[in-house]
Amino acid sequence: MKVVLINTLTPGGAYVACQRLYDALRKQGVDVSFVAVKAKRRHFLWERFCIWAANGFSRKNLFAVSVANTGTDISQLPEVREADIIHLHWINHGGLSLRNIQQLQALGKLVVWTMHDMWPFTGICHHAYDCTAYETQCTQCPQNAGVLAKNTFIAKCVMWKRLHFVGCSEWIASLARRSHLTKNSKICSIPNPIDTTLYYPVSKQEARKRLGLEPYGKYVLFGAMNTTSEMKGFQNLREADKLIASDEVQYLVFGRNAGYVVSLLSHKGKSLGYVNDEHLKTLIYSAADVFVTPSLAENLPNMIMEAMACGTPCVGFQIGGIPEMIDHNVNGYVARHKDAADFAEGINRVLASRDEWGIAARKKVMNTYSEEKVANQYIELYKSLLTAE
């Protein structure tokens, strides 16, 4: 059984998750290869131009939607030609076009698609939020004023044949089962894996010493690739921060614009900048008492998994796959959506129960997201699909 994993070469959670699955499958003896599709600049810019023009030359939601009208044909690559299973992940932003996906299907191989966001079963949006138009047909899109959503949805209806979908969370799998595009497809739920020997609990005192932090503070950690992204919900954290009375609380922030975020919080904080080194991230997660995710939309956030693997409880809103990761009042706190007071309450609860909840957080990751467990679920899926063929 030969498997090829395909993802656009771009910074982001989906690429990281795909790389981790590649490593996990290799460790289980699977003959697997990884094709990272480098989007050509002209492809990326042409797609964005079409979206911009269709939206009345407004930049609003310019990166919230994709039409996949241009990309790279990878159907003749040796890794693809030799594979028994083509496993797609996140292919947008000039990676693969709809036509390129059709070219892969024409090879007559099994095609599995892991959904890292909602794009595979909507017209053009990556997160539909409160919109449910994809359940019937995306005739009008609240994120783009043009007809791109309708036209792309119709094109997908024609092309989406014999595709097998996997949701990183049961939440996204359940939404896909309701979409007109994918309701008749085979859909299951398998989470992303994490290397629990790389992300593991380091003594808080040791982690803080190595990071130059005060040894006995109460540290609240917030991180994102772009901390000021509207979707990552910094404004929610800012509102919750005003409701935390303890003077002992300090913030640690990592990611792009981390310094700006720290400057807007009422409590003392430290910017750790953009962090890409996984060993350093392990120290940061271990040094914190709680990791917070105030996001407005998430599927199965890698950072929650990383923090929990390091024995750090998390606080997040009741959105997407977060309630599947955080067991409320057991290994973290799930706050009501956009409720800053409840989010602040969650931070206070975790700070009061950090040791007990931290042990439970690590246990949850070991039992649910370890490389061996996730890889074996995919292996069973691959075998069952090949047998059914």
Task: Report a brief summary of the structure.
This protein has helices spanning 13-27, 41-54, 78-81, 98-105, 148-159, 170-176, 204-211, 234-241, 258-264, 278-287, 302-309, 322-325, 340-352, 354-368, 371-388; strands spanning 2-8, 31-37, 85-88, 110-115, 163-167, 186-189, 218-226, 249-256, 269-273, 290-293, 314-317, 332-335.
What would you note in describing this structure?
The chain is α/β, with parallel strands linked by helices. The chain has 2 domains: 2-193 and 370-388, Rossmann fold; 204-368, Glycogen Phosphorylase B (Rossmann fold, 3-Layer(aba) Sandwich), CATH 3.40.50.2000. The chain contains 15 helices and 12 strands. The chain has a 6-stranded parallel β-sheet with strand order 2-1-3-4-5-6. It has a 6-stranded parallel β-sheet with strand order 9-8-7-10-11-12, with helices on both faces. Strand 3 (85-88), helix 4 (98-105) and strand 4 form a beta-alpha-beta unit. The two termini are 13 Å apart. The mean pLDDT is 95.
